[in-house]
Structure formats: C-alpha cells, structure tokens
Amino acid sequence: MNVVILGSGRGSNARRLLEAEREGNLGKARVVSVFSDRPDGPILKLGDEFGVEARYLDPGSYRTKLDGDAEKAYIKAIGTKDPGLVVLAGFMRVIKPPMIRAFEGKIINLHPSLLPSFKGLEAIRQAYEYGVKITGCTVHYVTEDVDSGPVIDQEAVRIESDDTLESLEDKVHAAEHRLLPEVVARLSMNEA
Ligand code: GAR
C-alpha cells in the first residue's frame, strides 16, 4: 500500500513512519513520497536520509488552506503515486472538498489532543491551559469539518501536577510517535 505523507515542518512523525518501515513495522505500507508546503522544513531532509522522494509543493497564496491551482497541483502530484493512504503528519493547512473527494476515505490526520476536545491550533497548549488531567493524540479520517472526521484510534496522556507545557509536549509527541505507525500498519493490513 503506497503512503504519501504531507507535512509542514519538523517532520518527527514522518520520520517515525519511515523508521517503522525500515524496521519492518509498518505492515504492508510503503512510504513513497513526502510533500511539504514549506520549502525549508527539516521534513524535506528525510528524503536523502531514507532514500524516498521528499519535495516542496507550492501551496499557493493562501496561508491556511489549499485551494485553486495549488490544490489541483497537490491532487495531481499525490494522485500519480497511487496512494492507498495520504497521511497528514503536521500538515498545517485545511484540506478542501475537492481534495477530500479525490482521495475519498484515504486521508488521515494526526492531531495532538483527544478529539473532539481541543480542535484547531496549539492543541497541547489548549489542553494544558484548560487544566484537563488527561489529554493525548488522535488519528482520524479527514472530512470537510476540520478535526471532526471519524476517529481511528487515540492514545491518552496523563497531565501530572509537575508537568510544564514543554514536558507535556514531549509526552504527547512520544504518544504520537507510537500511535501513528501502529495505525498506518493496521490500515495497510486491512486493505484489500
Ligand atoms: C504534531 O504534534 C501533530 O499532531 C500536529 O503537528 C505536529 C507535527 O509534528 N498537527 C496538528 O496540530 C494538526 N492540527 P511533526 O512535524 O514533528 O510530525
């Protein structure tokens, strides 16, 4: 099953997927491309390191969404990879209906909270500042409503009284690094 990863920056979850594949822990999934909407993100360095295509795709003039010609270019670039799964791993743009329809039921997103709590940006900070005792991360299918598609799986993280925002971020990221490869591996085994 071909997997295309979209990311915007650090790329630690894209890295974990590539590491899991290298370790033989990604089921039938094979990462074929990593696309970034930023020309300078560390995520693009994964290409050389893992021998996989990693390139910048121009996101157009909008700051927070993919639309118009840029969206068409993304759909084309992803479509040529014949993906069984498109993984949004820190891709910080809203995906609009044309792209969702082009890869119906195949786009999944990683979000750093236990959805439906703390949708949107800075979810770890939102949870920390709200004062909840349990947060975590979610992998869900992408639908037209942002951060609202069917949940595939979640991992909980307890917020201890001595946690700082930074220590909580570390814990949530560690949970994401476990959860996302597990989910991708599982979905790859379900594919016909
Ligand atoms: C991850 O924590 C992911 O959950 C979050 O961005 C980070 C990307 O890290 N995504 C969102 O907030 C999407 N709304 P990474 O680039 O190191 O994988």
Give a verbal description of the structure:
The structure is a single chain. The model has no long low-confidence stretch (mean pLDDT 96). The protein has a single domain (2-189), classed as Rossmann fold (3-Layer(aba) Sandwich), CATH 3.40.50. It is built from six helices and seven strands; from the N terminus they run βαβαβαβαβαββα. The longest helix is centred in the last third of the chain and has 26 residues, at 165-190. Strands 3-2-1-4-5-6-7 form a seven-stranded mixed sheet. The chain is an alpha/beta fold and 192 residues long. Helix 2 (46-50) links the parallel strand 2 and strand 3. Helix 1 (12-22) packs across helix 6 (165-190). Bound molecules: glycinamide ribonucleotide.
Quick synopsis:
By secondary structure, the protein is α/β, with parallel strands linked by helices. Helices cover 35% and strands 22% of the residues.
Q: How is this fold's topology laid out?
A:
Layout (H helix, E strand, L loop, with lengths): L1 E6 L4 H11 L7 E7 L9 H5 L2 E4 L11 H12 L5 E4 L8 H6 L4 E5 L11 H8 L3 E8 L9 E8 L6 H26 L2
Parallel strand pairs: 1-2, 1-4, 2-3, 4-5
Antiparallel strand pairs: 5-6, 6-7
This protein binds glycinamide ribonucleotide.
CATH hierarchy class name: Alpha Beta
Major sheet: 7 strands, mixed
Provide mean pLDDT, rounded.
96
Q: Helix amount, in percent? A: 25-40%
According to DSSP, the number of beta strands is: 7
Task: Give keywords.
7 strands, 22% strand, alpha/beta, 192 residues, Rossmann fold, binds glycinamide ribonucleotide, 6 helices, globular
